[in-house]
Structures are given as C-alpha cells and as structure tokens.
Write a structure and sequence with these properties.
MetI-like fold; mainly alpha; 9 helices
C-alpha cells in the first residue's frame, strides 16, 4: 500500500473516530463564553474561539459528525436507487432502457450543485431536506455506472449459461451480474462521499443546509468570513478540515480504482 494511501486512511479514520466519540468526550459545541470571543488559537484553545466564544475545535468535530451522517445517508440512498435502476435498465434493454436513459439525461442536463441548490431552496433548510435534495442529484451517477457495467457483463458465458438453464432473471442479476459490478460501485461510493460532503458544506454556506446552532463546516466558514481580517482561524480551521476529508476520500477512491483498473463511466 502506497504511503499516500496510508496517510489518507489514517486521516479518514481519525475523523471518523472523532466524529463518533466527540459527543461523549468533548464539551457542548454550542456552549457560549462571551469573555473569550474571537480568541486566537493557543494551548488553552487549540483552534481558537468563534464570535460567540464557542470552541472552534469542538464545533469542527461536531460538524464532522453531521457531515459524515449526511454523506452516509445520501450515498446509501443514492447507491440503492441508482444501482437498482441501472441494473434494471441494463438488463431489460429496449424501450425501457431508452426511457430510463432519457430520464438520466434530463438530470445530467443540469449542473448537479445547481439542481441541489434549487431543490434545497424549494424544500427548505434542514438535515432531512438536504439528504433528499442530494439524493435526487446523486442517484444518476450510480445508475449510469451500474447500467454500463451491466451491459458489459450480461452477455458473458456464465450469464448466457444461466439463462439457458432457465434461471429466473432476478436470480441471474443478483447472483451473476451484481457481484461483478460491485467493485466499480464501491469506487463510486468513495467519490460520492467526497462529493456529498462538499455539496453539504456548499448548501450550508449558502444558508440552505444545516441551520444554527447545529455545527456545520459550511456554516462555520460562512460565519467566519465576516471576521477574516481579525480572526482568520474561523475560516482556515473548518476549511482545512473539509479539505483533509475530501482529499483523503479522493486518494482512497483513486487507489481503489487503480487497484481494480476500473474506468469510471
């Protein structure tokens, strides 16, 4: 395993551990201390304090939990929906495949983040609505990949033999097709997690995602922009956290893709 991959795994696992155990170990991320407003990073406050005297480090770790929870929920829903649609479309073919492809083309005609912003604006802010908006945007990538992979394996010898033996189509798909397309789906999941984390931060930055006082990296960066000249750590710290997670996930996805020699569709 390459050194960069080990570092990426270490960074990602560290964030996962912090996100999982911070509610039981760290103090309340919403605890206000007006006597310590905009305190710079020091040994007493490793990442400083924000405009309400709240610990930036505590809020970043709390925001990590929110980001990971949303990313896992969105990717799980998008993967299930998209993979199911892609498998069905690629296996059935014909007019059904054509109609599904046209629906995917409609979604792909709009930039993903703009469509997510529009949906979030219609549904309103909140964790549930963010998950719905990003799922509606994210399923298409999984569907395209699953369809392309299904078309490439459905005519292989073992699948043709299963058809000749009278095996039911659902059993063929689940036992002979799905296992062969699992590897590229896993790679897509890693890139999907990175994309959702960035998209959630973007929506929160615009005020369409996680609402105060719940900690979110995007909203922390937005609030910190007002104090860039006097307290740049309010932007630098959550920005670095967001960058480290996204880069780590991207490196892991690249490594998996190279290992399995997968060409993303």
């Amino acid at each position: 395993m390459a050194l960069s991959t080990r570092i990426a795994l270490g960074i990602l696992l560290s964030w996962l551990v912090l996100a999982a155990f911070s509610p039981f170990v760290l103090s309340d991320p919403d605890e206000i201390d007006l006597a310590r407003i905009l305190v710079e990073p020091s040994t007493a406050a490793l990442m400083g304090r924000d405009d309400l005297g709240r610990s930036v480090a505590t809020r970043i770790t709390a925001g990590a939990g929110v980001s990971f929870a949303i990313a896992l929920a969105v990717v799980a829903c998008a993967c299930l929906i998209g993979t199911g649609v892609g498998l069905y479309s690629g296996w059935k073919g014909g007019i059904i495949d054509l109609l599904i492809v046209r629906v995917m083309d409609v979604f792909l005609a709009f930039p993903g983040i703009l469509l997510a912003i529009a949906l979030a604006g219609i549904l309103g802010p909140g964790i549930g609505n963010v998950v719905i908006a990003l799922t509606v945007v994210g399923w298409v990538g999984f569907a395209r990949l699953a369809r392309a992979q299904t078309l490439s394996v459905k005519h292989r010898d073992h699948v043709s033999i299963a058809v000749a033996l009278g095996t039911s189509p659902p059993r063929i798909v689940m036992c002979h097709v799905l296992p062969l397309i699992t590897a590229p789906i896993i790679v897509e999941i890693t890139f999907g997690l990175a994309g959702v984390i960035v998209a959630e931060a973007g929506l929160s930055f615009l005020g369409l995602g996680i609402q105060p006082p719940t900690a979110s990296w995007g909203s922390m960066i937005r609030d910190g922009t007002r104090y860039m000249l006097v307290a740049p750590h309010l932007v630098i710290m959550p920005g670095f956290a967001l960058m480290s997670v996204v880069v780590a996930l991207s490196l892991i996805g690249d490594r998996l893709r190279d290992h399995w020699q997968i060409d993303r569709s």
